[in-house]
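Complex 257.
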Amino acid sequence: MKTIVCAIQKGGQGKSMLCTHLAFLAAEMGKRVLAVDLDSQGTFSRNLAVQYDRQAAPAFGLFKGAHRPALPLTLTIKTKGSIAAYTGDRELVAVDESPALQPQALRTSLAAFAGDFDVCVIDPPPTLGKRLAAALIAADFVVMPFVPARESVDGLGDLMETIELHKQEHNPNLQVLGLLPNKVNSRSAAERRIMAEIAKAAPGMLLPMHIRERTSVSGAMAESRPVWAVHGGQSQRLAAEETRSACAHILKTVFKK
Ligand SMILES: Nc1ncnc2c1ncn2[C@@H]1O[C@H](COP(=O)(O)OP(=O)(O)O)[C@@H](O)[C@H]1O
Ligand SMILES: [Mg+2]
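Predicted structure with adenosine-5'-diphosphate bound:
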């Protein structure tokens, strides 16, 4: 089982959107996908399925060791593979508050499923806290979606330091796939300046693609579908192409290793 985490300590950057599309694409490819939603808001869970039993497989259980089997999701699209989930809810806040719950516990719990799934996608909450640490300790790959705006970019240095720290101390095999610009508005000169600054400050870290800001992307998430499975015009088709090619690029690297 290959484990991917989409990490950035700010909300609204596209973590849940990217996790959702990675899970859908992997399932379309025939993979058995395990989705782990570590955000108490449950966005990843809701993006994947219109309806699911919230009590069946809470992600909180993964930190206590006494977890139930992952919940197989009923998807809005037909796939060769499948998606099962540990869903996010408010109980997860206890992970941050209780010193007895260790970040290493997630890795241990997930190791028990190594034979049941081909890929695990983890969506952490938007903070540099224990749940992000747990995800970074458990993952094989990390990808960082970000919106090219001043306030998002200011925290990227801290994020990369955090990733480096966990890599050195707990998870030497963690592979940093890079930064994925999301909600891009190519007409903005300020944005282009920010992208040039990042390319200079973090050479080689920018992935060779981006996803533009388009309403079809948020619309697809609201319908629990990938953007390539919603009907629309030219703008939807471009959004579908960009999102699919970003996910295909990531999954190609993940399954090559
Ligand atoms: N490329 C995009 N174009 C338009 N809306 C987007 C795009 N990426 C994400 N969104 C929307 O922005 C909001 C925040 O995205 P989300 O993935 O939930 O962020 P995060 O998980 O980082 O907090 C959601 O409503 C999502 O559907
Ligand atoms: Mg989210």
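The CA atoms of residues 62 and 106 lie 6 Å apart.
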